[in-house]
Amino acid sequence: MGIEYLQGAANDLGNIGRIYILKGDYDQALSYIQESLQMYRQIGDLQGVANSLNNIGTIYSHRGDYERSLKYHQEALHIHREIAYLPGISVDLSNIAAVYISKGDNDQALKYLGAALQIDREAGHPQGLALALGNIGLIYGNKGDVDQALRHLQEALTIDKEIGNLQGTASDLGNIGLIYSYKGNFDQALKYHQEALQIQREIGNLQGVANSLSNIGLIYKAKGDSIGTTKYFGEAEKIFEALGFPKEAKKTRKLGETAEEP
Q: What is the pLDDT of residue 23?
């Protein structure tokens, strides 16, 4: 097979794998992306190798296997540093930071995000800049500094909308909705979560749809609306079950049942 054929096949496999990530089918996603990784290595496409490693890291992060996720993201970072590809380095740093956020290590996350932010501003890399700003906003939210969280998330949202990054836009909207929930401003929170839900449906991100439905259910629960709570938690539970996420489905079901209690 010629290099051009393998390059095209590797790209196609990677794209299919990313679709399965959005659908929440991580076994299928891993299969396609590992095959694309093998092809990229065969033809010596280091950029393709690094992208595949990042996608695999994302899969393991979704599965909660943070140590394995870090391993793949760190390997991608090593390659991007070798080829001096600044946008890639920035994305790797933000991906590593996101794993540390999931692990609850905000200090380590901020360290990586600070480095990513500096690269993005110097290199004029808007997508990476939005990713770093959004993750910094999440950390401030975790720390209870809602004003700083909103400032960073709104800046990320503005950038993602400008460049047409729908997945980033949906994530920003959902995170802003969470911050407004923390502030007790449920009407604003609902507005952002519903907008996020619409985009997640448009791009076919089923896990994102379920998360948005669950967040909306939490708002109705806080407002004492048992009908709305049951409706949105019920929809979220069905999707989580279909995706093979029994823990999330069980958690959502319990929240919905609690809402119906007198």
A: 82
The dihedral formed by the CA atoms of 201, 15, 82 and 121, expressed in degrees to the nearest 10 = -30
Angle, CA 239 vertex, CA 237 and CA 241 arms, to 5°: 70
Cβ–Cβ < 8 Å for 197, 212: yes
Rounded distance between C-alpha atoms, residue 140 and residue 158, angstroms: 18
The answer to whether 108 and 149 have CB atoms below 8 angstroms apart is: no
* DSSP-derived secondary structure for 98-120: HHHHHHT-HHHHHHHHHHHHHHH
Which pair of structure tokens corresponds to residue 57? 């890291």
d(C-alpha 59, C-alpha 46), whole Å: 20
pLDDT band at 258 (very low <50, low <70, confident <90, very high): low
Buried b (16+ CB within 10 A) or exposed e, 79-103: bbeeeebbbbbbbbbbbbbbbbbee
Q: How far apart are CA 26 and CA 56, in angstroms?
A: 9
Please state the pTM of the whole predicted model: 0.73
Dist. CA 14–CA 250, nearest whole Å:
32
Q: Quote the CA–CA distance of 112 and 7 in Å, as a whole number.
A: 31
- Nearest to 228, CA basis, from 176, 200, 201, 193: 193
**Residue 173: count of CB within 10 angstroms of its CB:** 25
* pLDDT for the residue 169: 98
* CA-based nearest residue to 34, from 2, 67, 57, 68: 57
The string of pLDDT tens digits covering residues 32-73 is 999 999 999 999 999 999 999 999 999 999 899 999 999 999
Using CA atoms, how far apart are residues 131 and 107, in angstroms rounded to an integer?
17
